[in-house]
């Protein structure tokens, strides 16, 4: 892992874009689905499956963010294998991969996430389950961090970091004028490889993820 991270920094000129996101719509959907989901699936529905689902939609809109660089060639993938960084119980990090995430709905993604994360923490993943990712999400917010700048997981060209969800006072426009409302807010950070993803593409991609999350409907 140490060698892989050093190689990534030496290989890719890293640029970061940061956006804030209102998770009110996701929060509402999660609460509406939560009890039935827990009863049926046996585990709680977290925010991460919603984030994964919207990331997949955004990657379909911007396929270059799901590509890789091979020498002087650009490899654009026609599938999305979503890596999810998982902290091990006794230290260390591993990135299990949801294969063909673009073929799964919210429930399917949630099931895979729960299964892979549980087995990752007890070192029960197969080699195939940690290979061939095309894009990675890392949730440093689980430790309370609000912003981070993750290192790209080579040979991918971007990685999305998700910060802790915090209730904040936000100014919103209403027909009666501006008002202050309490909102569940989260910072998203996109680190991207500037050899392939320029600022315009990286900025549009992360804001498309925000758009899908803020307008989420179940």
UniProtKB/TrEMBL annotation:
A single GO molecular-function term is: lipoic acid binding
Keyword annotations for this protein?
A: Acyltransferase, Transferase
Whether RNA-binding counts among this entry's keywords is no
Q: Locate the 2-oxoacid dehydrogenase acyltransferase catalytic domain: which residues?
A: 1-216
> Which cofactors go with this protein?
(R)-lipoate
Quick one: signal sequence residues? none
A Pfam family found in this protein is 2-oxoacid_dh
Asked if Plastid is a keyword of the record, the answer is no
This entry carries the following GO cellular component terms, namely: cytoplasm
Name of the protein in its database record: 2-oxoacid dehydrogenase acyltransferase catalytic domain-containing protein
Q: What is the lineage of its organism?
A: Eukaryota, Fungi, Dikarya, Ascomycota, Pezizomycotina
